[in-house]
Design brief:
- The chain is α/β, with parallel strands linked by helices and about 350 residues long.
- The chain folds into two domains: about 200 residues, Rossmann fold (3-Layer(aba) Sandwich), CATH 3.40.50; about 140 residues, Glycogen Phosphorylase B (Rossmann fold, 3-Layer(aba) Sandwich).
- It is built from 13 helices and 16 strands.
- The strands form four sheets. A six-stranded parallel sheet has the order 3-2-1-6-7-8, sandwiched between helices. Strands 11-10-9-12-13-14 form a six-stranded parallel sheet, sandwiched between helices. The chain has a two-stranded antiparallel sheet with strand order 4-5.
- Helix 3 packs across helix 4.
- The longest helix has 14 residues.
- The chain is globular and about 60 Å long.
Protein backbone atom coordinates (compact mmCIF):
# COMPACT_ATOMS: atom_id res chain seq x y z
CA UNK A 1 0.00 0.00 0.00
CA UNK A 2 1.33 3.42 -0.96
CA UNK A 3 0.51 6.17 1.54
CA UNK A 4 0.88 9.92 1.20
CA UNK A 5 1.12 11.30 4.73
CA UNK A 6 0.73 15.09 5.06
CA UNK A 7 1.69 16.91 8.26
CA UNK A 8 0.85 20.48 9.28
CA UNK A 9 4.25 21.76 10.35
CA UNK A 10 3.20 24.98 12.08
CA UNK A 11 3.51 23.48 15.55
CA UNK A 12 6.09 21.01 16.84
CA UNK A 13 3.28 18.83 18.21
CA UNK A 14 2.19 17.71 14.75
CA UNK A 15 5.74 16.71 13.86
CA UNK A 16 6.26 14.98 17.21
CA UNK A 17 3.14 12.90 16.57
CA UNK A 18 4.36 12.17 13.04
CA UNK A 19 7.67 10.84 14.39
CA UNK A 20 5.82 8.28 16.49
CA UNK A 21 3.73 7.32 13.47
CA UNK A 22 6.88 6.98 11.35
CA UNK A 23 8.33 4.60 13.92
CA UNK A 24 5.19 2.47 13.83
CA UNK A 25 4.87 2.54 10.03
CA UNK A 26 8.44 1.30 9.57
CA UNK A 27 7.42 -2.04 11.09
CA UNK A 28 5.30 -2.87 8.04
CA UNK A 29 7.30 -3.39 4.85
CA UNK A 30 4.10 -3.50 2.80
CA UNK A 31 3.35 0.13 3.75
CA UNK A 32 5.29 2.56 1.55
CA UNK A 33 5.05 6.11 2.91
CA UNK A 34 5.79 9.45 1.28
CA UNK A 35 5.85 12.30 3.82
CA UNK A 36 4.69 15.85 3.04
CA UNK A 37 5.20 18.87 5.32
CA UNK A 38 3.59 22.29 4.99
CA UNK A 39 2.98 25.36 7.13
CA UNK A 40 6.60 26.11 8.07
CA UNK A 41 9.56 27.34 6.01
CA UNK A 42 11.79 24.38 5.14
CA UNK A 43 14.84 25.97 6.77
CA UNK A 44 13.00 25.99 10.12
CA UNK A 45 12.33 22.25 10.10
CA UNK A 46 14.77 20.27 12.26
CA UNK A 47 15.44 16.64 13.25
CA UNK A 48 13.64 15.33 10.17
CA UNK A 49 15.70 12.17 9.65
CA UNK A 50 12.75 9.88 10.41
CA UNK A 51 10.91 11.10 7.31
CA UNK A 52 13.44 10.28 4.61
CA UNK A 53 13.17 12.22 1.34
CA UNK A 54 10.07 14.17 2.38
CA UNK A 55 8.17 16.66 0.23
CA UNK A 56 7.55 20.28 1.20
CA UNK A 57 4.86 22.72 0.15
CA UNK A 58 4.03 26.17 1.53
CA UNK A 59 0.53 25.33 2.79
CA UNK A 60 -1.24 27.47 5.38
CA UNK A 61 -0.19 28.82 8.76
CA UNK A 62 -1.12 31.43 11.36
CA UNK A 63 0.86 34.52 12.34
CA UNK A 64 1.16 35.21 16.05
CA UNK A 65 2.37 38.29 17.91
CA UNK A 66 2.90 38.77 21.65
CA UNK A 67 0.81 35.82 22.75
CA UNK A 68 -2.14 36.08 20.36
CA UNK A 69 -3.11 35.37 16.76
CA UNK A 70 -2.58 38.32 14.42
CA UNK A 71 -5.53 37.84 12.09
CA UNK A 72 -4.61 40.70 9.76
CA UNK A 73 -1.04 39.47 9.29
CA UNK A 74 -2.32 35.92 8.83
CA UNK A 75 -4.60 37.09 6.02
CA UNK A 76 -1.87 39.16 4.39
CA UNK A 77 0.62 36.29 4.20
CA UNK A 78 -1.91 33.86 2.69
CA UNK A 79 -0.88 32.93 -0.87
CA UNK A 80 -4.13 31.53 -2.26
CA UNK A 81 -2.78 31.13 -5.80
CA UNK A 82 0.18 29.10 -4.58
CA UNK A 83 -2.06 26.97 -2.35
CA UNK A 84 -4.49 26.13 -5.17
CA UNK A 85 -1.59 25.30 -7.49
CA UNK A 86 -0.06 22.94 -4.90
CA UNK A 87 -3.41 21.22 -4.38
CA UNK A 88 -3.96 20.86 -8.12
CA UNK A 89 -0.49 19.48 -8.84
CA UNK A 90 -0.03 17.14 -5.88
CA UNK A 91 0.06 13.60 -7.40
CA UNK A 92 -2.39 11.95 -4.99
CA UNK A 93 -3.58 9.57 -7.72
CA UNK A 94 -0.30 7.67 -7.25
CA UNK A 95 -1.29 6.65 -3.71
CA UNK A 96 -3.74 4.14 -2.26
CA UNK A 97 -4.40 6.23 0.87
CA UNK A 98 -3.88 9.86 1.84
CA UNK A 99 -3.37 10.57 5.54
CA UNK A 100 -3.67 14.13 6.81
CA UNK A 101 -2.46 15.36 10.18
CA UNK A 102 -4.60 18.48 9.67
CA UNK A 103 -2.59 19.19 6.53
CA UNK A 104 -4.69 21.06 3.93
CA UNK A 105 -2.78 20.46 0.68
CA UNK A 106 -2.99 16.66 0.70
CA UNK A 107 -6.49 16.66 2.22
CA UNK A 108 -7.96 18.93 -0.44
CA UNK A 109 -6.04 17.20 -3.24
CA UNK A 110 -7.51 13.87 -2.13
CA UNK A 111 -11.02 15.33 -1.99
CA UNK A 112 -10.73 16.98 -5.40
CA UNK A 113 -9.64 13.70 -7.02
CA UNK A 114 -11.76 11.30 -4.97
CA UNK A 115 -8.86 9.49 -3.31
CA UNK A 116 -9.37 7.62 0.00
CA UNK A 117 -8.37 9.89 2.88
CA UNK A 118 -7.90 9.51 6.62
CA UNK A 119 -7.48 12.31 9.15
CA UNK A 120 -5.28 11.75 12.22
CA UNK A 121 -4.79 14.35 14.92
CA UNK A 122 -6.21 16.42 17.71
CA UNK A 123 -8.08 18.87 15.49
CA UNK A 124 -10.32 16.12 14.14
CA UNK A 125 -11.71 15.61 17.66
CA UNK A 126 -13.58 18.91 17.18
CA UNK A 127 -15.96 17.12 14.82
CA UNK A 128 -17.59 15.89 18.05
CA UNK A 129 -19.25 17.65 20.97
CA UNK A 130 -16.24 18.36 23.20
CA UNK A 131 -15.33 21.36 25.42
CA UNK A 132 -14.96 24.49 23.31
CA UNK A 133 -15.54 28.24 23.65
CA UNK A 134 -19.13 29.42 23.16
CA UNK A 135 -17.88 32.06 20.73
CA UNK A 136 -15.82 31.39 17.63
CA UNK A 137 -18.30 29.97 15.14
CA UNK A 138 -16.01 31.28 12.40
CA UNK A 139 -13.06 29.36 13.84
CA UNK A 140 -15.16 26.18 14.09
CA UNK A 141 -16.21 26.58 10.47
CA UNK A 142 -12.60 27.05 9.40
CA UNK A 143 -11.56 23.90 11.26
CA UNK A 144 -14.22 21.91 9.39
CA UNK A 145 -12.97 22.97 5.96
CA UNK A 146 -9.25 23.40 6.67
CA UNK A 147 -8.23 19.79 5.97
CA UNK A 148 -11.36 17.71 5.17
CA UNK A 149 -11.14 13.91 5.01
CA UNK A 150 -13.41 10.91 4.43
CA UNK A 151 -12.72 9.26 7.81
CA UNK A 152 -11.10 10.88 10.81
CA UNK A 153 -9.51 9.68 14.02
CA UNK A 154 -9.53 12.60 16.43
CA UNK A 155 -7.42 12.49 19.58
CA UNK A 156 -7.87 14.05 23.00
CA UNK A 157 -6.99 13.63 26.66
CA UNK A 158 -10.46 12.12 27.17
CA UNK A 159 -13.07 10.65 24.85
CA UNK A 160 -16.08 12.65 26.16
CA UNK A 161 -18.34 9.78 25.06
CA UNK A 162 -17.30 9.90 21.39
CA UNK A 163 -15.09 7.80 19.07
CA UNK A 164 -12.02 9.86 20.00
CA UNK A 165 -8.64 8.18 20.49
CA UNK A 166 -6.10 8.83 23.28
CA UNK A 167 -3.05 10.90 22.33
CA UNK A 168 -0.01 9.52 20.55
CA UNK A 169 2.30 10.16 23.48
CA UNK A 170 4.51 7.97 25.64
CA UNK A 171 7.10 8.80 28.31
CA UNK A 172 10.63 9.45 27.02
CA UNK A 173 13.06 8.26 29.69
CA UNK A 174 15.83 6.65 27.64
CA UNK A 175 19.40 6.46 28.93
CA UNK A 176 20.31 9.44 26.76
CA UNK A 177 17.63 11.51 28.42
CA UNK A 178 18.26 10.56 32.01
CA UNK A 179 16.31 8.58 34.57
CA UNK A 180 13.51 11.10 35.00
CA UNK A 181 14.59 12.26 38.47
CA UNK A 182 13.90 15.96 38.94
CA UNK A 183 16.84 18.36 38.74
CA UNK A 184 14.72 21.12 40.30
CA UNK A 185 14.31 23.28 37.19
CA UNK A 186 11.05 24.49 35.69
CA UNK A 187 10.81 23.97 31.94
CA UNK A 188 9.24 26.86 30.02
CA UNK A 189 8.02 26.53 26.45
CA UNK A 190 6.13 29.69 25.46
CA UNK A 191 7.25 30.45 21.90
CA UNK A 192 4.19 32.61 21.22
CA UNK A 193 4.73 35.00 24.15
CA UNK A 194 6.42 38.40 23.96
CA UNK A 195 9.96 37.26 24.81
CA UNK A 196 11.49 40.25 26.64
CA UNK A 197 8.63 40.75 29.17
CA UNK A 198 8.51 36.99 29.78
CA UNK A 199 12.23 36.85 30.62
CA UNK A 200 11.89 39.86 32.92
CA UNK A 201 9.10 38.12 34.83
CA UNK A 202 11.10 34.90 35.18
CA UNK A 203 14.09 36.88 36.45
CA UNK A 204 12.04 38.06 39.43
CA UNK A 205 11.63 34.54 40.77
CA UNK A 206 14.00 32.44 42.93
CA UNK A 207 13.76 29.41 40.65
CA UNK A 208 15.83 27.92 37.84
CA UNK A 209 14.14 28.02 34.42
CA UNK A 210 15.08 26.18 31.24
CA UNK A 211 13.45 28.11 28.40
CA UNK A 212 12.85 26.72 24.91
CA UNK A 213 11.39 28.46 21.89
CA UNK A 214 13.05 31.88 22.26
CA UNK A 215 16.09 33.38 20.48
CA UNK A 216 19.31 32.38 22.23
CA UNK A 217 20.87 35.85 22.03
CA UNK A 218 18.29 37.58 24.22
CA UNK A 219 19.61 39.16 27.46
CA UNK A 220 18.50 37.15 30.49
CA UNK A 221 19.15 36.70 34.20
CA UNK A 222 21.38 34.05 35.77
CA UNK A 223 18.44 31.89 36.83
CA UNK A 224 17.41 31.41 33.18
CA UNK A 225 19.01 29.11 30.60
CA UNK A 226 17.91 29.56 27.00
CA UNK A 227 17.95 26.26 25.12
CA UNK A 228 18.29 25.55 21.42
CA UNK A 229 15.73 23.35 19.63
CA UNK A 230 16.46 19.66 20.23
CA UNK A 231 14.06 16.74 20.22
CA UNK A 232 16.04 14.55 22.62
CA UNK A 233 17.27 17.43 24.75
CA UNK A 234 13.80 18.88 25.14
CA UNK A 235 12.26 15.56 26.13
CA UNK A 236 15.03 14.91 28.62
CA UNK A 237 14.59 18.35 30.18
CA UNK A 238 10.84 17.77 30.47
CA UNK A 239 11.48 14.39 32.11
CA UNK A 240 13.88 15.88 34.68
CA UNK A 241 11.86 19.04 35.35
CA UNK A 242 10.05 19.99 38.53
CA UNK A 243 7.15 21.43 36.53
CA UNK A 244 6.26 22.63 33.02
CA UNK A 245 4.94 26.02 31.88
CA UNK A 246 3.59 26.11 28.34
CA UNK A 247 0.88 27.31 26.00
CA UNK A 248 -2.17 25.08 25.59
CA UNK A 249 -1.05 23.02 22.63
CA UNK A 250 -2.10 19.40 22.62
CA UNK A 251 0.94 17.16 22.14
CA UNK A 252 3.36 18.63 24.69
CA UNK A 253 0.73 18.50 27.41
CA UNK A 254 -0.11 14.90 26.47
CA UNK A 255 3.57 13.92 26.75
CA UNK A 256 3.98 15.84 30.01
CA UNK A 257 1.02 13.96 31.48
CA UNK A 258 2.83 10.66 30.87
CA UNK A 259 5.47 11.88 33.34
CA UNK A 260 3.09 13.24 35.97
CA UNK A 261 4.61 16.73 35.89
CA UNK A 262 2.58 19.71 37.15
CA UNK A 263 1.50 21.96 34.28
CA UNK A 264 0.79 25.70 34.21
CA UNK A 265 -0.66 26.71 30.87
CA UNK A 266 -1.94 29.78 29.06
CA UNK A 267 -3.88 29.42 25.80
CA UNK A 268 -2.75 31.47 22.84
CA UNK A 269 -5.33 34.24 22.67
CA UNK A 270 -7.60 34.04 19.64
CA UNK A 271 -6.51 30.49 18.80
CA UNK A 272 -9.70 28.46 18.98
CA UNK A 273 -8.02 25.10 19.52
CA UNK A 274 -5.85 26.29 22.40
CA UNK A 275 -8.74 28.04 24.14
CA UNK A 276 -10.80 24.85 23.81
CA UNK A 277 -7.87 22.83 25.16
CA UNK A 278 -7.68 25.11 28.19
CA UNK A 279 -11.37 24.51 28.87
CA UNK A 280 -10.85 20.74 28.66
CA UNK A 281 -7.84 20.89 30.99
CA UNK A 282 -9.89 22.75 33.58
CA UNK A 283 -12.85 20.40 33.24
CA UNK A 284 -10.64 17.32 33.54
CA UNK A 285 -8.47 18.92 36.29
CA UNK A 286 -5.27 18.02 34.46
CA UNK A 287 -3.47 21.39 34.65
CA UNK A 288 -3.61 24.90 36.07
CA UNK A 289 -4.86 27.37 33.45
CA UNK A 290 -3.75 31.01 33.75
CA UNK A 291 -5.04 34.11 31.99
CA UNK A 292 -1.51 35.56 32.03
CA UNK A 293 1.98 34.25 32.73
CA UNK A 294 3.90 36.56 35.07
CA UNK A 295 6.01 36.36 38.21
CA UNK A 296 3.01 36.55 40.55
CA UNK A 297 1.11 33.76 38.78
CA UNK A 298 4.14 31.47 38.51
CA UNK A 299 5.39 32.17 42.02
CA UNK A 300 2.01 31.54 43.65
CA UNK A 301 1.63 28.29 41.69
CA UNK A 302 5.10 26.97 42.57
CA UNK A 303 4.78 28.01 46.22
CA UNK A 304 1.79 25.69 46.46
CA UNK A 305 4.11 22.80 45.48
CA UNK A 306 1.65 21.54 42.85
CA UNK A 307 1.24 17.85 42.11
CA UNK A 308 0.84 16.49 38.60
CA UNK A 309 -1.60 14.06 37.09
CA UNK A 310 0.05 11.03 35.51
CA UNK A 311 -1.65 9.19 32.64
CA UNK A 312 -0.06 6.26 30.84
CA UNK A 313 -1.39 6.14 27.31
CA UNK A 314 -1.18 2.90 25.28
CA UNK A 315 0.85 2.75 22.08
CA UNK A 316 -1.76 4.50 19.95
CA UNK A 317 0.53 4.83 16.93
CA UNK A 318 1.09 1.08 16.77
CA UNK A 319 -2.63 0.43 17.09
CA UNK A 320 -3.49 2.85 14.27
CA UNK A 321 -0.88 1.42 11.90
CA UNK A 322 -2.01 -2.14 12.66
CA UNK A 323 -5.58 -1.02 11.94
CA UNK A 324 -4.50 0.48 8.59
CA UNK A 325 -2.34 -2.49 7.58
CA UNK A 326 -5.20 -4.89 8.27
CA UNK A 327 -7.75 -3.13 6.12
CA UNK A 328 -9.39 -0.84 8.74
CA UNK A 329 -12.04 -3.48 9.41
CA UNK A 330 -12.96 -2.22 12.90
CA UNK A 331 -14.92 1.00 13.23
CA UNK A 332 -13.28 4.09 14.76
CA UNK A 333 -15.49 3.54 17.81
CA UNK A 334 -14.19 -0.02 18.25
CA UNK A 335 -10.62 1.17 17.86
CA UNK A 336 -11.17 3.95 20.39
CA UNK A 337 -12.85 1.63 22.91
CA UNK A 338 -9.98 -0.85 22.82
CA UNK A 339 -7.41 1.89 23.38
CA UNK A 340 -9.22 3.63 26.24
CA UNK A 341 -9.46 0.30 28.05
CA UNK A 342 -5.64 0.31 28.18
CA UNK A 343 -5.28 3.85 29.60
CA UNK A 344 -3.97 4.03 33.18
CA UNK A 345 -4.72 7.40 34.85
CA UNK A 346 -3.65 8.60 38.26
CA UNK A 347 -2.27 11.52 40.26
CA UNK A 348 1.47 11.60 40.94
CA UNK A 349 2.05 9.94 44.30
CA UNK A 350 -1.41 8.33 44.37
CA UNK A 351 -1.76 4.96 46.05
CA UNK A 352 -2.51 1.86 44.02
CA UNK A 353 -6.05 1.87 45.40
CA UNK A 354 -6.61 5.48 44.33
CA UNK A 355 -5.30 4.78 40.83
CA UNK A 356 -7.53 1.71 40.48
CA UNK A 357 -10.53 3.78 41.57
CA UNK A 358 -9.71 6.40 38.94
CA UNK A 359 -9.76 3.79 36.17
CA UNK A 360 -13.17 2.39 37.08
Amino acid sequence: MKILYGVQGTGNGHISRAREMARALQKYSELEVQWLFTGRPPEKLFAMEDFGDYWWREGLTFVHKEGKIDQLATTRQLNVRRLLKDIRELPVEEFDLVISDFEPVCAWAARKRNRPSLGLGHQYAFAHDIPRPAFGWTARAIMKVFAPVEVSLGMHWYHFGHPILPPIAQPHLSEAQGDGESSGHVLVYLPFEHAAPLLRELARLPHKFLVYGLPLDLPHADNIILKAPSVGGFRGDVARSRAVICNSGFELIAETLTLGKPILTRPLQGQFEQEANAMALQELQLARVAARINADTIGHWLDQDPSGVRILWPDVADAIVYWIANGRRNTPQQLADSLWEAVIPGREGATAEETQTATE
